[in-house]
Amino acid sequence: MHELRDRFGSLVAAHRRRKGWSQAELSEKTDISVAMLSRIETGHTGARFPNIERLAQAFGIDPAELFSPHIPGSALVRPKLTAMMARLSRLSDNDLEWLENVLDAVLKHR
Questions:
Q1: CA distances from 79 to 48, 49, 75, 84 (A)
Q2: Where exactly are the structural domains of the chain?
Q3: Which of 43, 50, 92, 108 has the most C-beta neighbours closer than 10 Å?
Q4: How would you class 75 by CB atoms within 10 Å of its CB: exposed for 0-12, middle for 13-18, buried for 19 or more?
Q5: CA 103 to CA 34: how far, in whole Å?
């Protein structure tokens, strides 16, 4: 069950970041507290249907998209990627930027 919460939380965080919103901005748009959004994004708690609907509406997506990423080689078929996404969702934007630079350097030398 934690894998589903982690995947859901990672996708909420990804959609929020894609929109360029802070958790506070998403909180204003959904009437979900920042504390609850943080717990959802980090996989510490799940979301109830009303909150799932609010999140999907704020992002302008179908609620199902919060459970299934539409990317090749998705985390749905790669459990290791799901776990990594959950861990990455806990990092600050600065840490993610640093890690992205490290990843770019590693991939450049492959």
A1: 24, 25, 6, 9
A2: 2-108
A3: 43
A4: buried
A5: 30
CA angle centred on 17, ends 61 and 37, rounded to 5°: 80
Q: Which pTM value belongs to this model?
A: 0.63
Per-residue pLDDT tens digits of the chain, which is 110 residues long: 588 898 899 999 989 998 999 999 999 999 999 999 999 999 999 999 999 999 999 998 888 888 876 544 444 446 677 678 778 888 898 999 999 999 999 988 87
Residue for token digits 């990843």?
A: 103
Q: Which pair of tokens denotes residue 10? A: 């990672």
